[in-house]
Amino acid sequence: MSQGGAARNAARPQDRGWxxxxxxxTVLLQALTLGFPSCIGVFFTDLQHEFQxxxxxxxxxxxxxxxxxxxxxxxxxILVKRFGCRFAVMLGGLLSGVGMVSSSFCxxxxxxxxxAGLITGLGSxxxxxxxxxxxxxxxxxxxxxxxxxxxxGVSLGFTLWPLLSQYLLDEMGWxxxxxxxxxxxxxxxxxxxxxxxxxxxxxxxxxPAKPAEEPERRAxxxxxxxxxxxxxxxxxxxxxxxxxxxxLQKYLAFDIFCQNKGYQxxxxxxxxxxxxxxxxxxxxxxxxxHNGVEERRAALxxxxxxxxxxxxRPLTGLLSGHRVFTGRRIYLxxxxxxxxxxxxxxxxxxxxxxxxILYCVxxxxxxxxxxxxxxxxxxxxxxxxxxxxxxxxxxxxESITLLIGPPLTGLLVDITNDxxxxxxxxxxxxxxxxxxxxxxxxxxxxxxxLREASKVPLDNPPRHQYNEMPAxxxxxxxxxxxxxxxxxx
Length: 489
Fold this sequence. Notes:
The chain is mainly α. It contains 21 helices and no strands. It folds into 2 domains: 15-197, MFS general substrate transporter like domains (Growth Hormone, Chain: A, Up-down Bundle), CATH 1.20.1250.20; 254-452, Growth Hormone, Chain: A (Up-down Bundle). It is 75% helix and 0% strand. Helix 6 packs antiparallel against helix 10.
């Protein structure tokens, strides 16, 4: 091999060598970050007794953590663009660890909102999303496989965190446990250190300025060099407003929401789904303990959900990728949401441990479908060149309902003193969202067929048509995406 070829291979480590170490680090990152909120239910009863807090007050703590984990995507994207993925992951690990260590010294439930909720949630967001982004630079040919393997980390976290947390809680109490968990989360910094930047090939020219930006820069440089007098304040503020609007347009695609009916329906449906989706994760362990199940066995319930996810989620992803489901993945997603809602009625029937195990199996299977299809369907309804912008608005809206869902349900439980309302509420939101998405897309599809039958010109297709968009980049497209922040359920 020539020296030039050897240099190019050394500068482009994609799909080989160190890339697989980066993948291993990303698996661990997802277990540490996305899997971590699954263990919060283990501490729910102890925190209530410690701070004399209601169900609603206690549930704000995990709700803030999960909401910030999802809503911090645009901020993480800016951070990655400015400082790189390695810095973002290590900063996230530091914030997560400091947040949980600080939580061990909290004297009120409101202090937990800041330390464990906001700081740990934001740190988890930075580490997770920057870790997913770096895979796009280290993998080209095997990018789909790498992302699928990385997602198994979430299921591993769901399986191991509750068991570890319950063991530590029994041995040393919740304060010392939070201290140890903070130390474990600092391992995100080690994962970030592994993610060294991908170097460009020797002789690669720097990225040129965009043509639209050059006249503005020249004009600005001329004003500065000539010592021209400062323009009127109103004239000076106008470019800033335009820049602000362009930033919002880049990270929050309101234009897509207004123009694309498929994206509009799907975003509203998923946002409504999240009102009920998070409730079993928060309240299942307290519900089991309230009905006489031993604490260790109650923590095992969440681990059962995670263990089944490890096997079912990849199978669901492979099944949905079959050409039979091309153009129909939204209906598979709606079916998974519907089954998830119906499974909640199992808990209403009985709170015996064997019945709760059956519920966990059914809930986990349907949850795997939701997790595997959420972003695949979003890629189907939005052009890939606007996917990052569409994802920004999508994650922020769903984070709002993730934030308010558990506390509102906790308030209802406090008023009625009946945990059954947790599962009634969850079923209502999930079933209604599934019916809304399925029926709306069916009506939209019929409307598009009627338009085609009325001989709509081919060069002017309907603006709101639901089409399959290619999830993989074409052969001629640049390999890594700019900065795409991705969340997982």
